[in-house]
Specification:
Strand order of the largest sheet: 3-4-6-7-8-11-12-13
Number of strands: 13
Distance between the termini: 37 Å
CATH class of the largest domain: Alpha Beta
Strand content: 5-15%
Shape: globular
Oligomer: single chain
Bound molecules: flavin mononucleotide
Order of helices and strands: HEEEHEEHEHHEHHHEEEHEHHEHEHHHH
Radius of gyration: 20 Å
Structural class: alpha/beta
């Protein structure tokens, strides 16, 4: 199924192509499932659409939201989605993925509270006084992708032959110690206290995309208390979740989790031992069961590694410059995410489940999202790149039943390219006034 660019003007042509490819892609003409309210913990969302966490790399040097950060969240909130997932925010300085990544500290917390408040105020102004989306903040440690100053400073959970080679890391590159991971538990819990103080409805202990917590899940070859057996690889995540639940019973736990990363075993997670192209959800589902028992209310399902397997994580038309063209059709990637999300939801019907990876579908994403919701494959459809390009996507879908094809994300990877070039991330084609000059500067630099 060779790679192909998007060329589907009608929903019928998209669905016909999926059928030709033998894919079970849910398409629904009726969008009313997107208007459903969803209960997360004690709160109801106003609708079943989410803005996924989308890092802008535009905080202040000490990690507070800056002007572009605020601009982005005001735009997201005005768009009217029911769930606003605030982006990857580091819990300790050495864990930042770039020098402009947000960092939550007691000194910065008031700025995060203001960011949330100002966003909600803008949202109410645009959508009516009763607009009250669920807000959650993603807490992260970037692990092997840490770059807190201006050069990579990888903090590895385990050696991964492919990633080590891609990052030119020698076999002797040290792993983070068990003591470091023990201490990190306290930092995550402190950050969750700060998130609660800022007014967020929930917190996310980010466990995806091969950052530290996600890499630990695949730490088969790591010695000691955090490697080898399933109990060890999941120890940090479950310990943090249980402590946050015990200390902050009012705060909802919402978790973004990789269920499949496509790395070969023994470096991969959620993969068949003999073929990394084949997902095997036995361990991810076992973990989700334990997370649910520990009080997690919502799982946001995601996959892949944005650096190493971006076509799995975010199906695209064009990759970043110098990147590969995948052998896989983007619809295969979109459908993989839908089907893996379906497995999670059908295994744990009481958990709220958010699906990812819809943006490549352009103006048809609402119909596929509604199809997934209608069939009980997910509770909420979340969009990432589309929210950069077209922050009003939720309002347009819910009020007009359509998306304007001329405003839709074109899956061109320029937002990712901006990040890779050390610039703030946004949509160069459709938010051009701000991001086109930054894109050009990044390319020149
Ligand atoms: C520029 C950029 C920044 C992102 N930042 C985050 C992030 O902070 N946290 C996260 O979990 N995922 C992040 N993602 C991944 C998205 O949330 C999403 O999973 C991915 O783009 C696929 O969804 P889409 O097809 O709707 O874009 C980012 C993606 C891009 C392109």
């Amino acid at each position: 199924m060779p790679h192909e660019r998007f060329r589907f003007r009608t929903l019928e042509s998209l669905c016909a192509r999926a059928q030709e490819l033998g894919l079970d892609l849910p398409c629904e003409a009726d969008l009313t499932p997107l208007a459903r309210r969803v209960r997360i913990g004690d709160k109801w969302t106003p609708n079943a659409l989410a803005v996924q966490p989308m890092e802008g790399c535009d905080g202040t040097p000490d990690g507070r939201p800056d002007a572009l950060t605020t601009r982005r969240y005001l735009r997201f909130a005005r768009g009217g989605a029911g769930l606003l997932w605030f982006e990857a925010t580091a819990i300790v300085p050495e864990a930042r993925a770039n020098p402009r990544q947000l960092l939550l500290t007691s000194a910065n917390a008031d700025a995060f509270a203001r960011l949330r408040e100002e966003s909600l105020a803008a949202g109410r102004q645009a959508n009516g006084a009763d607009y009250d989306p669920f807000t959650t903040l993603q807490l992260t440690h970037s692990g092997r992708y840490s770059r807190p100053v201006d050069a990579p400073a990888p903090l590895l959970a385990h050696h991964d032959g492919l990633l080590d080679a891609a990052q030119h890391l020698p076999d002797e590159h040290p792993l983070v110690t068990d003591d470091y991971l023990d201490r990190l538990q306290d930092r995550y819990v402190e950050a969750a206290h700060l998130a609660a103080r800022c007014g967020f409805d929930g917190v996310d202990i980010k466990a995806c995309h091969r950052y530290l917590m996600s890499e630990l899940l695949a730490a088969h070859t790591r010695p000691g208390r955090y490697g080898g057996a399933f109990e060890n690889r999941t120890r940090l995540l479950l310990s943090v979740v249980r402590r946050v639940r015990a200390e902050l019973p009012e705060l909802a736990l919402t978790l973004r989790l990789n269920v499949y990363d496509g790395h070969p075993w023994p470096w991969g997670w959620g993969v068949a031992r003999d073929d990394a192209a084949v997902p095997d959800l036995s361990e991810p589902l076992r973990l989700i069961g334990l997370l649910g028992d520990a009080g997690v209310a919502l799982i946001n399902v995601t996959v892949g590694n944005p650096y190493y397997t971006p076509h799995i994580n975010r199906p695209f038309d064009t990759n970043v410059l110098g990147g590969y063209t995948p052998a896989e059709h983007p619809l295969v990637g979109v459908t993989r995410m839908l089907q893996l999300t379906r497995q999670v939801k059908q295994s744990y019907p009481n958990l709220v489940v958010v699906g990812s990876g819809y943006s490549w579908l352009r103006q048809h994403l609402g119909h596929v999202g509604a199809g997934a919701l209608q069939r009980g494959w997910a509770d909420i459809a979340g969009v990432g790149r589309m929210a950069f390009a077209y922050p009003d996507f939720a309002r347009d879908l819910l009020t007009t039943g359509t998306l304007d094809p001329h405003k839709c994300c074109i899956a061109c990877s320029r937002c990712t390219q901006l990040m890779r070039d050390g610039q703030p991330a946004g949509c160069a084609p459709f938010d051009a006034e701000v991001y086109r000059p930054l894109y050009d500067a990044g390319r020149r630099g």
